[in-house]
Design a protein that fits this description.
With 430 residues, this protein is α/β, with parallel strands linked by helices. The protein is 34% helix and 22% strand. It has twelve helices and 17 strands. Strands 1, 10, 11, 12, 13, 14, 15, 16 and 17 form a nine-stranded mixed sheet that branches. Strands 2-3-4-5-6-7-8-9 form an eight-stranded parallel barrel, surrounded by five helices. Helix 4 (88-98) links the parallel strand 2 (77-81) and strand 3. Helix 8 packs parallel to helix 9 (197-208) and helix 9 (197-208) runs parallel beside helix 11.
Length: 430
């Protein structure tokens, strides 16, 4: 038999376990939209939108455009990263806000589209175009309605190895086409680019021997700076390392006979949305590449971008709301889950849902980790106080913009509490 002391001790321990269990038990989420998403829902309903839709918040994006322009000022040129904003209307809007025609383009379809529909653009390739696509590009370009576009003056072709450069030089010679060539340098990312000044010297020598080739500058991408764990000042060391490498490549190139332009005439490009603020006062570069910061997907939430606002959302219509239950044969798991977590007692089935995006509204709604994924009808879970029904919307915030924007066909412009326009995006491409 238990003594009184043992009994009281056991009761106390059991009470502690119950208390801890109760404290750990999930609390019900709010289940409603805040004022912003309530108004956005009303705008979508008024516009008759009942399919998954990508939304661009014009006011928030213009805040970002103005903030970036003020931060950079006249100290650097801005080059728009096309793949991050793949919509002609959005690119034109950004170009007007930043007073620039400079675009960075990453593949053949977008290159051809910009040459045709933005014939005033100054284009820099963000990665080398496969040499086998060069003949196709010039052939298609000659067939388009883009007589004002001059490829010899308006395109800088990116080259990253002597072998790639050799194929470009052979093409230029065979087709008698002048080509401006920008050399990609590796400043620490180790994903591509010239690894050392010896290789850079080889490539510049090759350009010196070809009259149709013009060295136009350097491009050094350093996205790794923002991703390096900031331990023991490691991030600051990574930044200093990247800048020192860029300076070494730049100074060597400027001394080489192939560099027939003064530094101000060369395109000395670096950065990206996560790191552009690190180079505003960098004397070794004259151009910053920025794209995603204009709409600030969630992967770009950082201290450096804290002044910018999210401006891109996905609205997914609700198809059905009911009691959450797993398929036949697994109901016991459903029952246990509902008993423990109040936020898994209601099932919210939406149109679509498997995007590179995070569910952000209503608060307290989550993708079901028990029900299988579906790109067509995703199952979410919520508490019984979930306030929305079929025909309402849930909202996601994209983690990135570039490939995701190509999945929706159009971009809904949210302006002054209404959906004012539907802008077409570029055709899907890799």
């Amino acid at each position: 038999m238990l003594s009184r002391r043992q009994f009281l001790g056991g009761a106390l321990a059991a009470g502690v376990r119950l208390g801890v269990g109760y404290a750990l038990k999930p609390r019900a989420g709010r289940g409603t939209h805040d004022a912003y998403f309530t108004q956005l829902s009303q705008a979508l309903r008024a516009a008759g939108i009942g399919s998954p839709t990508l939304i661009w918040d014009k006011a928030r994006s213009e805040h970002n455009l103005h903030t970036i322009a003020e931060q950079v000022g006249q100290r650097k040129h801005l080059r728009i990263v096309t793949k991050s904003l793949p919509c002609l209307n959005l690119l034109e809007h950004t170009a007007q806000a930043w007073h620039t025609q400079r675009q960075m383009v990453f593949n053949y379809p977008m290159l051809l589209t910009l040459a045709q529909f933005m014939p005033q653009a100054d284009l820099l390739l963000g990665k080398p175009l496969s040499p086998v696509e060069l003949p196709n590009f010039f052939s298609r370009l000659s067939q388009t309605q883009a007589p004002a576009f001059n490829a010899a003056q308006q395109i800088q072709w990116l080259v990253d190895t002597p072998e790639t450069l050799q194929t470009y030089l052979q093409f230029a010679c065979a087709q008698a086409k002048p080509m401006r060539l920008n050399i990609e340098i590796d400043v620490g990312l180790h994903r591509g680019g010239v690894p050392d000044v010896a290789t850079l010297n080889t490539m510049l020598d090759m350009m010196s021997n070809e009259l149709l080739a013009q060295f136009s500058g350097l491009m050094g991408y350093e996205a790794h700076i923002a991703k390096v764990p900031n331990l023991l000042h490691n991030r600051a060391q990574t930044e200093a390392h990247a800048k020192a490498l860029y300076r070494e490549f730049r100074e060597f190139a400027l001394r080489h006979p192939a560099s027939r332009l003064v530094p101000e005439q060369l395109t000395l490009n670096t950065a990206g949305s996560p790191t552009y603020r690190l180079h505003i006062d960098n004397p070794d570069v004259n151009e910053l590449a920025i794209g995603s910061a204009v709409v600030k997907p969630s992967d770009f939430d950082s201290e450096l971008l804290s002044e910018l606002q999210p401006a891109l959302y996905i609205a997914a219509p609700i198809l059905k709301v009911g009691e959450f239950s797993l398929p036949y044969g697994a109901q016991m798991v459903s029952n246990l889950t509902r008993a423990w977590d109040v936020n898994q007692r209601t099932s919210v089935i939406i149109h679509g849902g498997e995007w590179r995006a995070k569910l952000i509204s209503p608060e307290g709604v989550h993708p079901s980790e028990l029900y299988g994924t579906s790109t067509n009808q995703k199952v979410l879970t919520a508490a019984p106080n979930f306030a929305h029904r079929a025909g309402d919307y849930v909202f996601f915030r994209p983690t990135q913009s570039e490939m995701l924007m190509l999945q929706f066909g159009t971009l809904a412009v949210y302006d002054q509490a209404r959906i004012s326009e539907q802008w077409p995006v570029f055709p899907a491409s890799a």
